[in-house]
Automatic annotation (TrEMBL):
InterPro entries registered for this protein in UniProt: Amidohydrolase, Bact_exopeptidase_dim_dom, Peptidase_M20, Peptidase_M20_dimer
Taxonomic source organism: Pseudothermotoga lettingae (strain ATCC BAA-301 / DSM 14385 / NBRC 107922 / TMO) (Thermotoga lettingae)
Binding site for Mn(2+): 100, 102, 136, 164, 363
Domain Peptidase M20 dimerisation stretches: 188-277
Pfam families named in the record: M20_dimer, Peptidase_M20
Cofactor annotation comment: The Mn(2+) ion enhances activity.
Alphabetized CDD domains for the sequence: M20_Acy1_YhaA-like
Protein name (record): Amidohydrolase
Gene Ontology molecular functions: hippurate hydrolase activity; metal ion binding; N-acetyldiaminopimelate deacetylase activity
Top enzyme category: hydrolase
UniProt entry keywords in alphabetical sequence: Hydrolase, Manganese, Metal-binding
Co-factor(s): Mn(2+)
Amino acid sequence: MISREVLSYKDELIQLRRDFHMYPEVGFELHRTSQKVAEYLESVGLEVKRNVAQTGVVALLKGAKPGKTIMLRADMDALTLQELNNVPYKSKIDGVMHACGHDGHTAMLLVAAKILKAHQSELSGNVKFLFQPSEEKFPPGGALPMIEEGVLKNPDVDYAFGVHLWSQLDCGKIGIRSGALMAAADEFQIILKGKGGHGAQPHYCKDPVIAAAELVMALQTIVSRKIDPFESVVVTVGKVQAGSAFNIIPETAILQGTVRTLSENSRNLVKESIKRITQGVCMAHELDFEIDHKDGTAVLVNDEKLTDYVRKIAEGIFGKENVVEVPPTMGGEDMSFFLKEVPGVFYFIGASNSQKGLERSHHSPYFDIDEDSLLVGTQMHVSLVLSMLGGKNDYISKGC
């Protein structure tokens, strides 16, 4: 059940979310967004640091007594996508849209900060509110540069938590999972270098197109023949580029793709296999090659004890029937880098509602959320902090 205190902020939550939705910004260019975030936090009375990792914002709430430090994180960036929804709060920026819920993430954390400030005297410990740029554009993404600039220090963060509004769950549901929740998301490019010539005289050439076709098929054997069937791995070639005319064998062919894995062992195995298979195909066709393999987000791993703790809080508020165990997703999320540094939990807030016609997937030009989900996420932020730092349980004293 949503508390009266959180419920009283419903209009403010919706107003904030719609403002961010109408004026979306991408990557690190979040100048309007970060200014609005910082001004809101300052008006609440928090210590605010601007321009972290260019346009990130970090606010600190010091409790009345010493204790652990909890970090709550929200991402703020939008996508380069033309919104097709016909709503009063439709994006006013051509070709840019909040199609992944980050407008809602930002609004929820702002209001949670305001509510928790009112409970400052009850807290034993600190809360860092972290507003991150460039979650969508990786590399480099916003998490790593924020870590490099010391957001986990002064005071040192003990636990980190984040949420994602989730179109695959109904509003009112919370999705959670211990261990690996989201995949490492890597990118690769392979350039095959042959010898071009006339299409009518292939025997004088070294054809990279034939090799590219063979390589696309060969790479699919990595998952089917090298990976344990119970391990989730995706190898996708999404782009093949070669040639300029129907009767010319080109000098080069380029393949680009993505690799998604849920363990470091699989991640390394796939990387090695791509190189080995490419070498074999190129040797057979007498080609040279270059491989550029870019590591993206890490595997996002939720701490087991903290996950159980968050689950119990959610069940206490919303009932066991509304807290579901979700399967891992092969999407990437750079919250993973924070969770590599400190234990924590990333979990999903249901945001769809078929009765309201709100069930389109993330990154769709028709994506939208049931705004009642903003209350759920805000309630979880507030309840988690008050439970851990408010002296209402013995979780931290047990040394978990």
